[in-house]
From TrEMBL:
Any one Pfam family match given in the protein's UniProt record, by short name: Methyltransf_31
Record InterPro entries: Methyltranfer_dom (IPR025714), SAM-dependent_MTases_sf (IPR029063)
Biological source species: Marivita lacus
Name of the molecule in the record: Methyltransferase domain-containing protein
Domain of life: Bacteria
Domain Methyltransferase residues, every copy: 198-304
Length: 374
């Protein structure tokens, strides 16, 4: 290959050949892994071996290219000639080395692919059947701390107007339980393919701590509350957290008409009056799109979901306007996703691995350690 390289332009041409070859292999691997349980293991292993070969050959190419450049500099007559050579090779040198930086990420990507191959026939339940005693004790201690923080962040008492309207005060679901429900709902959304954007709504958000927490899972996180002082507290919290992708607003859950804008809606019995609570549930289900994920961790909704035209996926996660048969089907699909919750990232320059990484994340898989890819 190096015998075809007579100068920097030839080097750039060879670089493009390597890049296009690798791009093709990455696209083929990506096409396989999105099939999840139907992926062809042998095809994936063959493609990974081909990528191994590209990475190895490119490393050898880069060494020989550097040797060629060094030899040309050694033959230069004076310092000015060396400077001219380095200037001439500058762009090619930078681009070929930058591509090597991309290739250095292959070990992370290969492990990511291997993880999905190994898991393709496995199902991970949306909820753990038997949490360990150690885990329960740790979660309980963490929940206590969260409750203290919750009380500090929202010292507002319930207003007379909110009480007279039948609302509950800002009573938080234990944080560990909340994250179990959010994680389950997140995996259902991944299974549905609703990856960008994913919009979350907390009905009765109080001081906004749950809205802030939901940002860890969803692209856009919002909360509504009847009481103005709660909304003010939530807005202050989100502003201090610099949460530009989250907001809190005042609205009456019984008359709000924007439920159809969301992919995931969470409500933890925000209304004290049983009849009004049922009216709220009916309004939510009436306005949302079919398949909208509803997270409702209380006994009343568990008793009423079928009559409301919802299917239960698992635990406190339901699908609106969905039969139980279809909800069971979505549960099985969600159990085939990975369990990684993708970290939000600042926008980065795309690399050769971007399609593979995005497809893996959309299936609930991520690299073991978050690292910049370039």
């Amino acid at each position: 290959m190096l015998d075809r390289v007579k100068g920097p332009h030839d080097a750039l041409a060879e670089l493009q050949v390597f890049r296009e070859t690798l791009r093709t292999h990455v696209a083929e691997v990506t096409k396989e892994i999105v099939l999840r349980d139907k992926m062809n293991q042998k095809a994936v292993e063959t493609l990974c071996a081909r990528i191994d070969l590209v990475v190895r050959d490119y490393s050898g190419f880069l060494r020989r290219l550097n040797t060629l450049r060094g030899a040309e500099e050694a033959e230069a007559q004076d310092r000015d000639a060396v400077v001219d050579l380095r200037r001439e090779w500058g762009i090619a040198h930078a681009r070929t080395n930058l591509f090597q930086v991309e290739l250095n990420q292959w070990s992370l990507m290969k492990a990511l692919v291997a993880k999905q191959v190994a898991s393709r026939k496995k199902r991970v339940p949306l909820y753990e059947a038997r949490p360990s005693g150690l885990g329960v004790a740790q979660s309980s201690a963490s929940d206590d701390v969260f409750d203290w923080v919750h009380a500090i962040l929202n010292p507002e008492s319930q207003s007379d107007d909110a009480f007279q309207s039948g609302c509950f005060p800002d009573i938080a679901l234990p944080n560990s339980r909340f994250h179990e429900h959010l994680h389950a709902g997140y995996r259902v959304v991944l299974a549905q393919g609703r990856t960008q954007p994913m919009r979350f709504l907390d009905v009765g958000c109080g001081g906004g701590l749950k809205v802030l927490s939901a940002r860890r899972y969803f692209t856009r996180s919002e909360g509504l509350d009847y009481q103005d002082s709660y909304v003010d507290t939530a807005r202050s919290l989100l502003e201090r957290a610099k949460a530009d992708d989250a907001k809190a607003f005042q609205a009456d859950a019984l008359t709000f008409d924007g439920y159809g804008d969301y992919d995931v809606i969470y409500f933890y019995r925000p209304i004290r009056d049983d009849q009004k609570l049922v009216e709220m549930e009916q309004r939510i289900v009436e306005l949302v799109r079919p398949g909208t994920v509803l997270i409702a961790p209380y006994v009343g909704f568990e008793a009423r979901f079928a009559g409301l035209g919802c299917g239960r996926v698992a635990g406190s996660v339901y699908l609106a306007k969905t039969s139980q048969k279809d909800a069971d089907r979505w549960r099985r699909k969600a159990e085939q996703t990975g369990v990684a919750v993708v970290h939000a990232e600042d926008e980065r320059v795309a690399t050769i691995w971007t399609p593979l990484l995005e497809a893996s994340r959309n299936s609930g898989y991520d690299v073991e350690r978050f690292k910049p890819l370039i």
